[in-house]
Amino acid sequence: MQHTALGYALLGLVQEEPRSGYALRKVFETTPMGTFSSSPGSIYPALKKLVKAGMLEQCLPDMGGKKRFHITPDGERQIKSWLHQPVTKTEVANSVDIALLRFAFLQNDKSTQPTLNFLTSFQSAVREQIDSLETYLNDPDNTSLSRHARLAVENGLRGFKAHLEWAISAEREFDA
Amino acid sequence: MQHTALGYALLGLVQEEPRSGYALRKVFETTPMGTFSSSPGSIYPALKKLVKAGMLEQCLPDMGGKKRFHITPDGERQIKSWLHQPVTKTEVANSVDIALLRFAFLQNDKSTQPTLNFLTSFQSAVREQIDSLETYLNDPDNTSLSRHARLAVENGLRGFKAHLEWAISAEREFDA
DNA sequence: CCAACCATGTAAGCTGTTACATGATTGA
DNA sequence: TCAATCATGTAACAGCTTACATGGTTGG
C-alpha cells in the first residue's frame, strides 16, 4: 500500500520541510507538479494513510490551526529506497513524469552520486525505448502502418530523444 | 460513463475493423499503444459496458469461438465527437498520450481537415504549455528553485518543444 | 458585511490492477 | 501427451474524482 505516485510526492515534499495538507495542495496547484493532482479528496486520505503506515507524523500543534506533518525515519528510508531504484524501460515508457519526480527529490540527498546513477540508468532506459520504437517502425510486419500511426510513433520518438539529450546535458551539469 | 481512455481506445480500434477482446489485448501487447493497458480484467468489462451503452455490438457468431464486436452508428458519433475536440493546454500537460491516441484514430476520418484542425490546436496548446513553464522558470518568486527542480522543468520544456516541432513537420506532411 | 480564501475532511461512484478460474486448440 | 497459447471471464481491492460539508479568518 502507498506505492502510489501521490504518496511518494507527498512524502518527498514533506521531507523537504514539514507541511500541512493545504500547503501541499498549493504546491500542486501552483507548480508544474500539478500532474499529481490536488483535490482534497485525494490528498487528505493519502496523508492519513501515510501516518497510519508510520511514514509521516503530525507535528505538535504549536499554534495556529495548521496541522503540519514531518517525515519519520522509516519514511526517510522508504523514500530513499524508492529514489535509488534504477530507472527502467517500462517506467520511461509509461510514466516518465514519475521518473522525473524521483529525479527532483534526489535534491534532498546529501551526495550527488544517486543523481548521477539516476541519470545513467535513465539514459539506458530511454535508449532501450528508442530502440523499441525504431524496431517497430522498421519491422516488415508493420509496413501497413498508416501515416497517422507512423506519425504518432514518431512523436514518441522525438519525445524520447529529447529526454535523452536532456539527461546528457544534465549529467554534464553535475560533472563540474 | 465510458469517457475513459481505454474506452475510446477500444472504440477506435473496433471502428477500424471488428475485433475480439483477445485481438484487442494483442494490439496493446504488441504495439506502442501498450500504454493503454492490456489486462483482461480491464478490457472485458470495458467492452461489456460499451455494448450496454450501445456503442458496440457483438457480431453474429459466424464461426469459430471468437466473439467479435463492431461499432454502432451511435458509437461512431461518440468517437467522432471525441476526436474532433480541440486539443487543450491541460490535455497536453496531463495526458499527451491520449491526445496522440486521438491523432492516430483521425486516420479513420475521410477528410484530412480534422487532422489539420487537430495539429493546429495541438500546436497552440503546446505553445501555451511552453509559455507557462518558461514563465514559471523566470518568475522572480522562484529564484530559490533548486538545480534539480529547474532541470526537471527543463526536461518538460524539451519534451514540449519536441512535440511542437513534430506537429509542425506533421502539418507539412498533410499540406501536400 | 460579504466575498474570498484558508483549512480539513467525508461519501459515492467509477476505473483499473492483480489474481484467480476455466476450457479449447495447436504444435512439438 | 504436455506445454503454450487462444479466449473469456469474475472477484477483491485500492486509488482517484467529484461533489458535498463545515467552519475560521482576512480584506475591501
Biggest sheet strand order of chain A reads 1-3-2
Shape of chain A: elongated
**Which two chains touch over the largest interface?**
A-B, 37 and 37 residues
Largest sheet of chain A: 3 strands, antiparallel
Separation of the first and last Cα atoms of chain A: 39 Å
What is the succession of H and E elements of chain A?
HEHHEEHHHH
The number of helical runs of chain A is 7
**What is the structural class of chain A?**
mainly alpha
Provide the β-strand percentage band of chain A.
5-15%
Give the number of DSSP strands of chain A: 3
Rounded to an integer, what's the Rg of chain A over CA atoms?
Answer: 19 Å
Helix percent band of chain A: 55-70%
Low-pLDDT segments, ≥5 res of chain A: none
* Mean pLDDT score of chain A: 94
Q: Main attributes?
A:
homodimer, 176 residues, mainly alpha, 3-stranded antiparallel β-sheet, DNA-binding
In short:
With 176 residues, chain A is mostly helical. Chain A has 7 helices and 3 strands, in the order H-E-H-H-E-E-H-H-H-H. The longest helix of chain A has 29 residues, at 147-175.
